[in-house]
Amino acid sequence: MTNNLDAMTFIEVKNLSKTFDQFLANDSISINIKKGEIHALLGENGAGKSTLVKCLYGVVKPTDGQILINGNHVIINNPREARSYGIGMVFQHFSLFPALTVSENILISLDKKIKKKHLEDKISITAKQWGLPIEPTKKVLDLSVGEQQRVEIIRCLLQNPKLLIMDEPTSVLSPQEINQLFKVLIKLANSGCSILYISHKLNEIKQIASKVTILRSGKVISSTSTSEISTTSMAEKMIGKKVKEITKISKNSYLNSSTAISINNLNRKKLSQFGTELKKISFNVKYGEILGIAGVAGNGQVELMNALSGETLGDPDEIIFEDKKIGNTNIKFRRSLGLEFVPEERNGHATVPDITLTENTFLTFHNTYSKNNNFLNEILLSSNMSSNDTISIINENDVRCPYSNPLADQLSGGNLQKFIVGRSLKANPKVLIISQPTWGVDIGAASEIRSKLLLLAKAGKAIILISQDLDEIYEISNNICVINNGSLSTPKITSKISAKDIGILMGLS
Amino acid sequence: MENLLITILLTSIPILLAGLGELVTEKSGVLNLGVEGMMLCGAVAALGSVLIFGNPYIGILFGAVAGILISTVFSFFTITLMTNQVATGLGLTIFATALTGLIGEPFVGKTAASLPKLEIIFLSDIPYLGKILFSNDILVYFAIFLIFFIHFGFQNTKIGIIIRAVGDNHDSAHSIGYSVKLVRWISTSFGGMCAGMGGAYIPLALTPHWSEGMTAGKGWIALALVVFASWMPIRLLIGALIFGGITILQFVAQARGWDVPSQFLNMLPYLTTILALALISFKLRNNNYAPACLGKHFLGNK
User: Which CATH number is A202's domain given?
Assistant: First the structure.
């Protein structure tokens, strides 16, 4: 049966289901993408977006259901077959090879035979045609994140895709790069290529997509055109309840307080070939202040976090806390002074994944447990103390556990992050240094974490927030600075710095 | 002098062959510490087959096949069953040392035919160079060819780039549709073949009779050499020649009657290995050439 409507459709998914062990990741999903349409796929983390597109790209096999391309039933066994049907995909965590050059990266994903020299010319031509400048002979590890994404896009474009799947493409880009990307996507859609655009950023979807399908717990909740739905009702459908009006906690004014921590001319060599060297970083944070450090990933955030926490050491006067020079002291000492750290990596850095929450709490607090106890008492009492502390962290922070006292990696990202932040607050810190606190965390948990930070500042504590999420930085920080290629810009008052300014400070125009 | 240079070249061939194979294996992300064991298997298979069939070329073939067979044991354990690569590699060497001792028992005291020298017309008449470079046995030419073959293959062929890609980021390789495990099986087998041929070269060209553990640590030196060469085939040749030279030094010292304890000279190749590795790791600390996935398991998609 072919009528005009069907002829407009490029790909149709009918009742697709996918189960992992007992878990139903996709529950009878149907979706219909027209030719040249930008179709957004919206949903929280764990809603099943990634599983669905992995089925379309042949990375995982659906348990049940059908896929039709141009009206014909197809079975997509692997990415190669997906590409032969004209499906290309740009992954969220890029599927690139850092030690290989741009052209080598592209060469191995092409199914046709082609000479390397010839391919390099072709890459340059395609790059120019679509406004995606790239140097084909450069190694990928020398490219910025934005450039790496261009490599992924060019890799797809070279295969003349009919459907381009983009998994959260803007999460790593600066505002300027996002505009540039949108221009390319619109140009591409006008040329007849369909785009399946995965995101949880509502404004973006409104801006670029013509249709949106909303997923929740593996099911399609709604599929409508973006002109007929407001961002508020998109958000409600996505999280499944009325967006609760968070009692807006205003930012703290801290003007008369004293300086908590000051960083003076901090330098660090890069840790690995993929690292960034820190160059003359200087800033002050006062009690009651939240300083937001924005920046595109890989510009020295990890190195800065390591230097602040004491994982890498330097000269004593590089870091001054109150009056103490602590640049050469270790983590344990810094924590005994009242500094707390929440690193970016949840599993494996902030917690040990395969031990229980109680044991993780014990690792953090065993020093304080042993303070007032002799050796024997410490052994006898600390397990009780850590389990009491764990229970109070869980209760105070609404950490939802699958069972009592689970292994750390049994918690979802959002719940684990709430636990980690709660544990740091439990230590009653004077200064909290926190990196990417809501990365990959669903909206509900993210707003809870942010309000905890605002409350902490209200209580007169200093916070250094390192984040890639500009909205978050704007929402809670008093002052903003930008880290770019290991250098930090001078902090500016939040109301006096625009997203465009930040983009320029990120070194991208 | 000519003879000395030829001897150095010949001594370095087993290390060179085994090192080249291990280089390919490691580029795909597999660390096979069983090189010594695979060389022993190659050596005993080569010697045995030559004693039976009388043809040294058959020996090369048997050595290569023995290397591949024993490497598939390693692949099965580490790639398919995902056992620890370091422990499995060490186990492989210990196992192979005992196994080859058992198999080699009947060959003790017998002498096998050596590989004939093949003089390349015209080229072998070049003064000095001709003797050194162009009148050797087939495995010398093969080893030299292999250096350039691997170098060119990694830079310019799709399969070479795929092997490097798998060693660099196996998750990405999987997500664009390559079978990480298959690529690693093939690379490990290639490594086994080269180690087997390197082992075969010892009885076929250097010492034509069997003694237990006759590779005498050459496999370990080859392993160190791969790191020393920072995973570049051409640097591997330079390294192999240096080690060949140091090994020969002890014979030179004996012949010339230098007043150095022989134990010290025996120790030199291993001492150099340790020094080289220490220097390299010092130099490489900030600039790591090692394949990013070296020694890591690929779990695949659950």
Answer: 3.40.50.300
Cβ atoms B244, B9 nearer than 8 A: yes
Asked if residue A351 is part of any domain, the answer here is: no
Report if residue A309 sits inside a domain.
yes
CA distance B301 to chain A (A): 8
A134-181 residue pLDDT tens: 888 888 888 877 788 889 889 888 888 999 999 888 776 777 788 888
User: Does residue B285 sit at the A interface (CB-CB below 8 Å)?
Assistant: no
Whether residues A186 and A261 share a domain: the answer is no
Residue B140 carries which side chain, given as an amino acid letter? V
Residues of chain A with pLDDT under 70: 1-7, 172, 241-248, 271-274, 371-373, 440, 508-509
Test B158 with A107 for CB contact under 8 angstroms.
yes
Is A95 close to B161, i.e. CB distance below 8 A?
A: no
Q: At what angle do helices B2-27 and B35-53 cross, to 10 degrees?
A: 120
Q: Are residues A96 and A200 in the same domain?
A: yes
Distance CA B91, CA B33 (A): 9
The answer to whether the CB of A432 falls within 8 A of the CB of A342 is yes
Specify the DSSP element, H or E, that contains A13.
strand A9-20
**Could you tell me which residues come within 8 angstroms of residue A340 by beta carbon, excluding any fewer than 6 positions away?**
A424, A427, A429, A431, A432, A433
Enumerate the residues of chain A whose CB falls inside 8 A of the CB of residue B302: 20
Domain check: are A306 and A158 in the same one? no
Q: If you search the block for the tokens 């660090």, which residue do you land on?
A: A268
Is the domain B2-284 a CATH 3.40.1130 member?
no
Residues in A closer than 8 angstroms to B287, CB to CB, are: 273
| CB of A126 closer than 8 Å to CB of A157 | yes
Looking at A387, A404, A427, the residue that finishes a domain is A427
Question: Tell me, what's the ipTM?
Answer: 0.80
Q: In this structure, are A215 and A300 located in the same domain?
A: no
pLDDT digits (tens, 9 = 90+) for A238-252: 877 655 545 567 777
Cβ–Cβ < 8 Å for A262, A283: yes
Residues A441 and A400: their CA atoms lie apart, in Å, by 14
A417 & A433 share domain: no
Same domain, A82 and A132: yes
What is the DSSP-derived secondary structure letter of residue A92? S
Whether residues A188 and A277 fall in one domain: no
Composition of chain B by helix, strand, coil, percent to 5: 75, 0, 25
Residue of B171, B176, B286 with shortest CB distance to A109? B176
A99: nearest CA partner in chain B: B168
Residue A79 touches chain B, beta carbons under 8 Å: yes
Q: Are residues A17 and A121 in the same domain?
A: yes
CA angle (A178 as vertex; A172, A183 as ends), nearest 5: 145
Q: Nearest Cβ partner of B287 from A59, A113, A273? A: A273
Dist CA B195 CA B189 (whole Å): 10
In which domain, by residue range, is A82 found? 4-239
**CB contact at 8 A, B20 and B147:** yes
